[in-house]
Amino acid sequence: MTSVNIRALLLFSAIFRVILILYGEWQDSHMEVRYTDVDYLVFSDAASLMASGDSPYKRTTYRYSPLLAFLLIPNAIIHRSWGKFLFSASDLLVGFFIRSILKLRRVPENLCTYSVMIWLLNPFTFTIGTRGNCEPIVCAVILWIIICLMNGNVLQAAFWYGLVVHFRIYPIIYALPIILILDSNFFHSGQKPFLSYWTAGHGKTTQSSTDATYHYNMQNVLTKIFTRQRVMFGLVSAIVFFSFTGLFFYLYGWAFLHEALLYHLTRTDPRHNFSVYFYHIYLHYEKEISVLEKFISFLPQFMVQLVLISCFAQDFPICFFVQTVAFVAFNKVITAQYFVWFFCLLPLILPWSSMKLKWEGICCFSVWMGAQIHWLMWGYMLEFKGKNVFLQLWMASLVFLAANTLVLIMIIRHHRYSPVFRHLELKSSKNSVKLE
Amino acid sequence: MESYHGEYGSLLDSDFQDFIARGLPSGLCGMLPDDLPRLSVLQQNLIGEGSHRLLSSSIRLNIEPKSLTKLPTHSCEVILIERLPIGVFADPFELQHLLQRGVFNNIAVFGDTNLELPSFLSNHSVVEVHMDVGPNLLISHKNGPYINIALPLHARYPPLDASGYSRVKFGAPDVFMCCSIEGNSPNQSCLFSPTGDGAELGSGEIVWRIPAGRKTHAEVVSIVTFISAIVSTLFIVLASIFYSKAIPYKTLKQS
């Protein structure tokens, strides 16, 4: 009966998204304010250019891989909403993958369904795909990589990883945790890795057995660092990344390299956004930023990523999640679409969270949303009322950073750390996790 | 306009004035009947608040009432050339959207159309708008019919200013009337400017106040930003270490 619920949920979500896309088309042609995201029009224009044999980079502000324009060529041939249907389908696929991942770890059906609902019924989620934002595709690929790793398909995971880093750069932050979990204790060739399953355990008692099987010390890292899986993953993903990059450089030249890669790596947009750095960047825009300044601004990001990876790598869903939240929070530019990057990972960690909806969950949600709304209020005053509220807006972004930090700490605090993989040779030993 | 920009590559006011004085085909207009509309007062207003506003240009026409019905035979259009100051820009894609909705006859932007760069990294741009002068587009007014052209404009991030605001001043636009005359060869058209025909700018100088950052904030903002980033980092690092279950000494405690 509960499996029908999932199907009903997916069906309802699909129908709802179709309705939204149709409504969006109506709003675009009848109202001054468009439903469709400005970026979608950029992708569509780039796709039309590509369809007529031109470079997609002739469209200003097109800052993505040519792959995206290629995927949207049917926009010019079939109908301009093709892309929205594609992105919404990816969004549904993400819901399906979330369920698959949780089922692999034997999470009970009701928890699975609630977790999938967190994604599918999130207003942010269904508007992002139906408005024509391409992030759901990236999320779907990331989750597929997780499924491949859990099933032991290292080669496939490597292929998709190389592709997704070419497409959207930010998943490079997952490289180190993935390398760390490709431990020879967990992965043997020809054998699927053993997964640790979900338990209803409260407190820390179930942790001791998994901790005993997990020897994370420097000796292991040094002696076993170049395992077959690690080398294969690194090589294959690098080959895929450089192949696609090389192919598009050959086809589109420096325009591709500048717009799709270098722009994202060096982007310092002085226009107001959620990042704490925006006002600092605007105030110093006329001056050259010294190497020391660049280093100081990169240091918090670097330190946080390193510590989070060291502490959580083996439980890689939570590792990916906290890394992504921190990456977005400490980035030089933050736009609302970046939030999807961690929203798609949130359902993967909820079954292992001891946080109750009342009142910790509601408190976290309110603090985070409240800080955003507060920022948006000042942003509105600046952009639409023309008042000089730069200082207040900057302080609102400090509050938003504080909110992100608080929510991150709360999630870490309530998370039941459970490494995904179990040692292969200890499967039959008395130290292995008992299945309940 | 396109040929001017292509040939000269420069959008400096002085160059443009020379071009108008020398190059435009206004000779034919002198031979035309008096029932062609003449441009008179031009009024400009900046409508809206904030970084996205409308530059509204109202052009009053002097035309004999009986000549109104004759307009289709001399198909005339008003050409408005707005030279935008450095601090503002027009979004070509937005204008294309308006063109598709039939708001203008034709519209084009020349020069710096970068939508993202701040003011001091940007350059001039020019918008050329063509609007039909047909009886259905003329708005009736007690002082005579007029045409309204509303151009959506956006503010760039201005250079820092101690007062907290940057003032962007708009110059007067150039307005022309282009009519194609029937009877003679179909391509014959004339272009004339109201300058010297008694047209005047009815409104005062247009000034757009754009919020600007204050240099005095620079030091405090930088220091507090970096301190907050470091403090948040410390909290996250401490929480990770304290609450993480991957630390060896914790396993020793439990075993």
UniProtKB/TrEMBL annotation, chain A:
Protein's name in the database: GPI mannosyltransferase 1
One Gene Ontology cellular component: glycosylphosphatidylinositol-mannosyltransferase I complex
Keyword presence, Endoplasmic reticulum: yes
Keywords of this entry: Endoplasmic reticulum, Glycosyltransferase, GPI-anchor biosynthesis, Membrane, Transferase, Transmembrane, Transmembrane helix
Pfam families, per database record: Mannosyl_trans
EC number of the protein: 2.4.1.-
Family of the protein in this entry: Belongs to the PIGM family.
Domain of life: Eukaryota
Species of origin: Carya illinoinensis (Pecan)
Membrane topology of this protein: Multi-pass membrane protein
An example Gene Ontology molecular-function term: GPI mannosyltransferase activity
Predominant location category: endoplasmic reticulum
Signal sequence range: none
Segments passing through the bilayer: 6-24, 141-162, 169-188, 231-257, 306-330, 336-355, 393-412
GO biological process: GPI anchor biosynthetic process
Role, per record: Catalytic subunit of the glycosylphosphatidylinositol-mannosyltransferase I complex which catalyzes the transfer of the first mannose, via an alpha-1,4 bond from a dolichol-phosphate-mannose (Dol-P-Man) to the glucosaminyl acyl phosphatidylinositol (GlcN-(acyl)PI) intermediate to generate alpha-D-Man-(1->4)-alpha-D-GlcN-(1->6)-(1-radyl,2-acyl-sn-glycero-3-phospho)-2-acyl-inositol and participates in the sixth step of the glycosylphosphatidylinositol-anchor biosynthesis.
Pathway: Glycolipid biosynthesis; glycosylphosphatidylinositol-anchor biosynthesis
Annotated compartments: Endoplasmic reticulum membrane
High-level lineage: Eukaryota, Viridiplantae, Streptophyta, Embryophyta, Tracheophyta
From TrEMBL, chain B:
UniProt pathway annotation: Glycolipid biosynthesis; glycosylphosphatidylinositol-anchor biosynthesis
Coiled coil, from the record: none
PANTHER family for this protein: PHOSPHATIDYLINOSITOL-GLYCAN BIOSYNTHESIS CLASS X PROTEIN
Bilayer-crossing regions: 220-243
One GO term (biological process): GPI anchor biosynthetic process
Organism: Carya illinoinensis
Annotated signal peptide: none
Record membrane topology: Single-pass membrane protein
Family: Belongs to the PIGX family.
Subcellular localization(s) per the UniProt record: Endoplasmic reticulum membrane
Protein's recorded name: Phosphatidylinositol-glycan biosynthesis class X protein
One cellular-component annotation, GO: endoplasmic reticulum membrane
Lineage of origin: Eukaryota, Viridiplantae, Streptophyta, Embryophyta, Tracheophyta
Keywords, in A-Z order: Endoplasmic reticulum, Glycoprotein, GPI-anchor biosynthesis, Membrane, Transmembrane, Transmembrane helix
Domain of life: Eukaryota
